[in-house]
Specification:
Structural class of chain A: mainly alpha
Helix content of chain A: over 70%
CATH superfamily of the largest domain in chain B: P-loop containing nucleotide triphosphate hydrolases
Order of helices and strands of chain B: EEEHEEEHHHEHEHEEHHEEEEEEEEEE
CATH topology of chain A: MetI-like fold
Shape of chain B: elongated
Structural class of chain B: alpha+beta
Strand content of chain A: under 5%
Helix content of chain B: 10-25%
Number of helices of chain B: 8
CATH architecture of chain A: Orthogonal Bundle
CATH superfamily of chain A: MetI-like
Distance between the termini of chain A: 40 Å
Oligomer: heterodimer
Largest sheet of chain B: 6 strands, mixed
Order of helices and strands of chain A: HHHHHHHHHHHH
Radius of gyration of chain B: 25 Å
Largest sheet of chain A: none
Number of domains of chain B: 2
Chain lengths: 261, 352
Amino acid sequence: MKRGHLGAWLAVALGGIYFLAPLVATFEFSLRMRRGEYSFDAYRVVFASGNFQASFLYSTIVALVTIVVAALIVVPAAYFVQLRLPRLRAIVEFITLLPLVIPAIVLVFGFIRLYGSSSALPLTATSLGTDALLTFGYVGLGLPYMYRSVDAGLRAIDVRTLTEAAESQGAGAATILFHIILPNIRSAILSGAFLTFAIVIGEFTFASLLDRPAFGPYLQLIGASRAYEPAALAVMAFALTWACLGLIQLVGGAPAPGVRR
Amino acid sequence: MFLALTGIRKTFGAEAVVKDFNLKVERGELVTFLGPSGCGKTTTLRMIAGFETPTEGSIRIDGRDVTHLSARRRAIGMVFQAYALFPNMTVERNIAFGLKVAGKPAAEINARVDEMLTLIKLPDLAGRFPHQLSGGQQQRVSLARALAPSPQILLLDEPLSALDARIRAGLREDIRALQQKLGITTIFVTHDQEEALSISDRIVVMNEGAIEQIGSPGDIYNRPRTRFVASFVGTLNTLQGVVVDPAEGTIRVGQTILRAQGVIEGTKTGETRALALRPEALRLGPPAEGDNALTGVIEDATFLGAIRRLRVRIDGGAILVDAFNSNGASFPEPGDEVKVSFSPNDLIVLDP
């Protein structure tokens, strides 16, 4: 082995240990609930818990609604920016980046002030209203990822010419968006969707301060009160996030739409 | 009059990209917009399509004013340089798209798609996706898609520019045959003079947003009116001459008096005018009765296969002479003195 290779291997190994050791240790700890032997008892307890199921289901539904709302807002917006208002692109990109800059805690206090029970639009007065508020907040959080993926997808196809070709065939804006543009950026939308899902499923700040029965606050509660279950949940959360990233790779690397494999 | 463009002007900011454009196109005619890139030909086409709105002027199709009508309501078929087939749809669904949008019944759509596939000679490719086709095949499908809803006008925006030379020539002939068979009024945009000359009923030569000349391919080639048209279409010799007698059509180049056909319009004795001569209109040897002749020295000879192109230095400039190559024919060598002769009919006096 050459010296240069040795250094490279060393660097990779160090990095690998830095990231993997805590994970392996957490996984190992999560298996030690039964004294003296390894078992999946912690996982069994977690899965059997009604709170786990309810909060996970709640967060999944919120995540899915978030994805649909985000796609419905972002796709037409990005499409028209690209087609008719290219000069606005820099401004729109800046706006979509804001959720990364403004801390979630600031956003959620803003929401509570604006939509509190004594405001003009008291969304927090009902539990459905609060669910909606939570979802809209998540749409905001997912904006940087959704917009970026969709914009990249639109740049990869010739939006202008495809639009003109469809217009010359008599198609209106809705037909063009749903039958021409959307199917051709499907994989871009999906990769934005998986990222959004991964963020929303474990989000704590919004859910906790709006007092929603979501997965994030449940994780925190268990972490504060139990020993082995939090480790099991952490491993599961990692697995879920990795599954999402794997799916992005899969759809992102997929060949052009319509290709039969 | 089927298509009429009247007083069209288009500005982007302070820059006028199309100026004072007037054109009338008959039903079933194929008119080509020819010019270098940036001459406004594509912008004019896009105004006919409805993708751009003229700053001034009006566009009428079949008597109806469509100047401010959106593209989707104009009943035009458009073929793009980049094919622009819908990547998520098969060939069949691409061709059917316009008919579906128009809400035609399925049976009618299927029949029309089959008819179109036969017309473009690709009946077996209905189930393929665009990325599984060659460039030439994609452009045929694009043509079929444009024609399927029976548009009033077919617009072709440099449809052959992205293709190989061999495929280009074949598709060019097919487009012309199809256009004549269907009798569809067509506007064809190109920067390639050979394409324009071979396919058109009439050619509109454009430069810097304005029309330089409108005429049949023969007119444009044999009787270019301006120096721009003369230099853009084909190879051309240009010389400076001084008018001797406008009424007799005589003009002096160096010390030689040449005769043009008929009266030289809009000039007077002593004025300098640009003259043009096609290399293939010139021949070596003494003039026949009534022809013009110039004397010069061969500078250079290039073998081009079917022809030999000779550069002859004359009094007042250098001219190219094309001579047909035939086996056994002898050609003068550089340094030889020759006589170049041509008919008065081939001496083109360009507009000032």
